[in-house]
Design brief:
alpha+beta, Nucleotidyltransferase, domain 5, two-stranded antiparallel sheet
C-alpha cells in the first residue's frame, strides 16, 4: 500500500479584529489498482489577537503531547496562524497513518528536517518511530529545496544516467537547532526535467531504502518523477475559487458578517505599475 498526506490553508476574509481562515487536509492511499481518499475539513476559524493563543494551544494539547521547548514558546503571530494550524493538522494526519498502516509506504510533502517551531524534533521522531514499528517506510518529497553544493541546488545536477536513479548527498549540515532525521537524496524517478529532494528515514538500512523506492516505482504511477498518490493528496486539499466563494457566503449567513473589498493601495498610488501587496 502507498499512502500520502498533504494539507492547505486559505485566508477567507478579514474582519475588524482579525482574519477568517480555512484549513483542510487529505489522506490518499493506493492499493492494487484503486485510489481512495479521506478529506478533513474545511475547518473555519476566526482568529484574533485575543484568541490566537487559546486556539493554538487548545488544538496542540488535544492532539499532541507538548514538549518542554514548546512550553516556553509563545503562540504564533496572527500572520503565522494559518500555516501553523495547517502544520498541526498535517503532523496529526501523518501520525495517524504511521499508527494504522502496516508494511506500506507513507509519502510526506516536504522534508524530514526538524528542530523548527512547526516540527519539534521529538514529534517527528515519534512519527518515524511509529512507522518503523509497523514496518512502514516514510519517503518525504520536497518540491523546493535550498540545499546547495558548490553554489548549485542539489536538484540541478544532471547526471548521464537514464532514470530512475537516486543520488545520495553526503556531508550536508544544517544550521542548529535544525537537524534532518533522514538521509537526503536527489530522486529522478522518470523521464522529464524534474528532480526532487527525497528524505528517507536514516534509521532504515540502505538496502531497505533502495527497496522502498523500487516498491514505489512498482506500485504507483510516476509522472515527472513525482508519485501520483502525493499529487492527488495535494489536489484534494487545495481550495478552488468556487469553494472560497462558498465559504464566504456561509460565514456571511451563519455569522452575519459583511465582506468588504479592501482597496489596493499600490493600485491607487501607482496605477498600472502597482503590483499589489503580494509583490511589494
Amino acid at each position: 500500500m502507498v499512502a500520502a498526506v498533504d494539507t492547505s490553508t486559505m485566508k477567507i476574509a478579514e474582519t475588524n479584529t482579525g482574519i477568517v481562515i480555512a484549513v483542510r487536509g487529505a489522506n490518499v492511499w493506493k492499493q492494487k489498482e484503486n485510489y481512495r481518499y479521506t478529506r478533513l475539513g474545511p475547518f473555519i476559524f476566526h482568529i484574533t489577537e485575543e484568541n490566537r493563543k487559546d486556539i493554538f494551544n487548545t488544538l496542540e494539547k488535544a492532539y499532541f503531547t507538548p514538549t518542554r521547548d514548546q512550553n516556553r514558546q509563545t503562540a504564533p503571530t496572527l500572520q503565522q496562524m494559518p500555516t501553523r494550524l495547517a502544520g498541526l493538522l498535517e503532523r496529526w494526519l501523518q501520525a495517524m497513518l504511521t499508527k494504522t498502516m502496516n508494511g506500506g509506504l507513507i509519502l510526506f510533502d516536504g522534508s524530514l528536517t526538524s528542530g523548527t517551531t512547526d516540527t519539534p524534533i521529538r514529534r517527528m521522531k515519534e512519527i518515524l518511530d511509529n512507522g518503523r514499528d509497523r514496518k512502514n517506510t516514510v519517503l518525504a518529497f520536497s518540491k523546493m529545496t535550498n540545499l546547495r553544493v558548490n553554489g548549485c541546488l542539489i536538484t540541478d545536477f544532471a547526471l548521464d544516467h537514464r532514470p530512475p536513479y537516486l543520488l545520495q548527498t553526503l556531508g550536508l549540515r544544517l544550521k542548529p537547532p535544525m537537524v534532518t532525521l533522514g538521509d537526503v537524496y536527489v530522486a529522478k524517478l522518470s523521464k522529464g526535467n524534474c528532480a526532487f529532494r527525497l528524505d528517507i528515514d536514516h534509521q532504515i538500512p540502505p538496502e531497505s531504502r533502495i527497496e522502498a523506492v523500487e516498491k514505489l516505482l512498482g506500485n504507483d504511477l510516476i509522472s515527472q518523477s513525482y508519485p501520483e498518490t502525493l499529487r492527488l493528496a495535494h489536489i484534494l486539499c487545495t481550495f478552488t475559487a468556487n469553494e472560497v466563494l462558498a465559504m464566504q457566503h456561509f460565514i456571511t449567513r451563519k455569522c452575519g458578517l459583511q465582506i468588504i473589498n479592501r482597496p489596493d493601495i499600490h493600485r491607487l498610488l501607482f496605477g498600472p505599475f502597482g503590483k499589489g501587496e503580494n509583490y511589494s
